[in-house]
Amino acid sequence: MSGIFSQFTQWLHDVFVAQWDGWIVLGFVAQALFMMRFVVQWLASEKARKSVMPVAFWFFSLGGGTLLLIYAIRQKDPVFIAGQGLGLIVYIRNLSLIYREKKHKQMNS
C-alpha cells in the first residue's frame, strides 16, 4: 500500500512540480479564463431565472481559447490545437453576429 502511495506522490510531483514553468502558468491562466465563461453564463442565467448567454461568455471564450491554442501549439498537441482552433471560429462568429445585431438596432432606432 505504501508503494502505491509513494508512486502516486511521485506522479503528483512529476506532473505538478517538476515541469512547472511559464508555459504551465500560461496554461492555467488560459484555463481559468475559459472556465470563467461558464461562471458568467451561470450567474446571468440565475439572475434572469432562465438560460441566457451574455456577451461576456463569448469574450471569455475568445480570450481563454486563444491562450489555450497558444499553449496547445507550444505543447504540439494536435487534438488540442484542432479543438481550440475550431472553437475560435465559433467564438468570433458569435461576436460578429452580436455586433451586427446591435448595429442594426442602432440604425433602426
TrEMBL record:
Presence of the UniProt keyword Secreted in the record: no
Annotated TM spans: 20-40, 52-73, 79-99
Family annotation (Pfam families): LAB_N
Entry keywords, A to Z: Membrane, Transmembrane, Transmembrane helix
Keyword Membrane annotated: yes
InterPro entries, sorted: Lipid_A_biosynth_N, UCP028440_lipidA_biosyn
GO BP field: lipid A biosynthetic process
SMART domains per record: LAB_N
GO cellular component: membrane
Sample GO molecular function, one term: lipid-A-disaccharide synthase activity
Domain Lipid A biosynthesis N-terminal intervals: 26-97
Name of the molecule in the record: N-terminal domain of lipid-A-disaccharide synthase
Organism: Bartonella choladocola
